[in-house]
């Protein structure tokens, strides 16, 4: 895949945010030297721990801007939590009204344009509804109050958007700006593009991080010791353990999620549908993807029961006569900051260590990567954690 050199702006060059050149090439940085860090320090290397969608996006953003970067993960070629993600590129369902959330869609579109459409995003929007019309109306008002371009549609408007759904809610929240992506493909595409730009991707277990009195950081792994000017913790549930080694306590919980694939001969949804009984979207050639959150218990059959209950509701609402064929079933464990806000910043106890841990990682990865890049090159500052 051809990637345009950073720092070359043309009238068609996408921006990741109004008024900012998100790709911010090295030549551009030198023009603003009074406001930047020492480029030689930044160029001595960044270690990104975690090769999920967040780590891959950060590695790509840094490599794209001529910064030496090494991405380390225990399962570079395996299926981590990213490959178990639903892939909804949405800001309304996460409940976040932060600047990071507000920039997420524009950042995602610009990243995909920079990769010349290699992410294969579907920007068909989403429809969300709850048990009662009052709950849905409250959701719409809340999201509109946060500034998101969401609108309420009645049953007739819903039918125009999704004519195959027979049992329609009286009111639904329509977010036309949202989309969907294959998370595993996104991760692999970003890692491959980062490699093409000179990034190293190392499959190894990280045991320790340390910061010396000279301000230099070191990452200890079973592939050796990696020195760096900055370390970025983007390894999900592994973030608290490594942050604690440099004196910071972070509260992150494991939130299990089920992702399943099913097949039907009927045409179902055109976009993401998120209702009280199921969450589905189109997948590949007559197949659909579903997602279910659940509370982990000792009952090993609970995830399976949740999926079959969702399939029964889909069959009921779409008026299908035949059973749906369950093709794939997997459980992932999302890293969810307990405070409810993304962890994105530097550690007070070790400013050389940056943290990127958030939900939803798929949606927020491009926006988070841009902020990490600008912090490292000195054009913006991340907050301390």
Q: Count every beta strand, where a strand is a DSSP E run of 2 or more residues.
A: 19
CATH topology of the largest domain: FAD/NAD(P)-binding domain
| Helical content band | 25-40%
Q: Which strand order do you get reading across the main beta sheet?
A: 5-6-4-14-15-16-13-17
CATH architecture of the largest domain: 3-Layer(bba) Sandwich
Radius of gyration: 21 Å
Strand content: 25-35%
- Mean pLDDT across the residues is 87
| Order of helical and strand elements | HHEHEEHEHEHEEHEEEEEHEEEEHEEEH
- Say which CATH homologous superfamily of the largest domain is assigned: FAD/NAD(P)-binding domain
SS-derived structural category? alpha/beta
Our measurement of the CA-to-CA distance between the termini, rounded to an integer number of angstroms, reads 37 Å
CATH class of the largest domain: Alpha Beta
């Amino acid at each position: 895949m051809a990637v345009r050199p950073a720092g070359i702006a043309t009238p068609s060059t996408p921006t990741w945010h109004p008024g900012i050149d998100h790709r911010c090439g090295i030549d551009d940085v030198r023009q603003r030297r009074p406001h930047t860090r020492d480029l030689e320090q930044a160029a001595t290397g960044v270690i990104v721990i975690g090769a999920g969608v967040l780590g891959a996006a950060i590695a790509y953003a840094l490599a794209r801007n001529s910064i030496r970067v090494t991405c380390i993960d225990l399962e570079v070629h395996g299926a981590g939590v990213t490959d178990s993600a639903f892939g909804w590129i949405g800001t309304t369902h996460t409940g976040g009204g932060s600047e990071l959330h507000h920039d997420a869609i524009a950042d995602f579109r610009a990243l995909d344009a920079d990769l010349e459409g290699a992410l294969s995003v579907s920007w068909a929007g989403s429809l969300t509804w709850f048990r009662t019309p009052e709950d849905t109306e409250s959701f719409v008002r809340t999201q509109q109050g946060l500034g998101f371009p969401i609108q309420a549609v009645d049953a007739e408007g819903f039918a125009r958007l999704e004519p195959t759904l027979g049992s329609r809610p009286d009111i639904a929240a329509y977010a036309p700006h949202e989309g969907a992506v294959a998370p595993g493909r996104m991760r692999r595409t970003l890692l491959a593009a980062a490699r093409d730009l000179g990034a190293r991707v190392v499959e190894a277990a990280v045991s320790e991080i340390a910061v010396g009195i000279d301000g230099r950081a070191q990452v200890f792994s079973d592939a050796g010791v990696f020195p760096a000017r900055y370390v970025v913790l983007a390894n999900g549930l592994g973030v608290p353990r490594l942050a604690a080694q440099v004196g910071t306590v972070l509260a992150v919980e494991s939130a299990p999620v089920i992702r399943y694939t099913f097949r039907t001969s009927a045409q179902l949804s055109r976009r993401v549908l998120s209702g009280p009984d199921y969450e589905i979207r189109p997948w590949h050639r007559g197949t659909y993807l579903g997602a279910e959150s659940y509370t982990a218990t000792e009952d090993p059959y609970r995830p399976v029961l949740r999926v079959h209950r969702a399939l029964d509701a889909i069959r009921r609402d779409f008026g299908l006569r035949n059973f749906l064929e369950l093709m794939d079933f997997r459980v992932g464990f999302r890293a969810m900051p307990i405070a409810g806000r993304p962890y994105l910043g530097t550690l007070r106890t070790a400013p050389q260590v940056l943290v990127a841990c958030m939900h939803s990682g798929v949606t927020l990865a491009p926006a988070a990567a841009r902020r990490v890049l600008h912090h490292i090159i000195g054009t913006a500052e991340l907050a301390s954690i």
